Amino acid sequence: MLRRKPTRLELKLDDIEEFESVRKELESRRKQRDEAEAAAGGEEAAAIGALGTEHKSREQLINDRIGYKPQPKASGRTAHFGTFEF
User: What mean pLDDT is reported for the chain?
Assistant: First the structure.
């Protein structure tokens, strides 16, 4: 495999100015979104408290998301031999 010298990248003043403008724009968007979420979060908390919805554990949320429905394990002889009775 042929080796070549590393490519030299030069940072120009225009590039720095563009980066700063894009960064400021993203920060302003993030602040607006955070403020909107904070305002909506207070309203949602009041609505959830009023409705009395149940809170699921992290494990239950994951199981619901992937469609896993755990079946309870049966104990005793019937668990090993099905419905046969002795």
Answer: 78
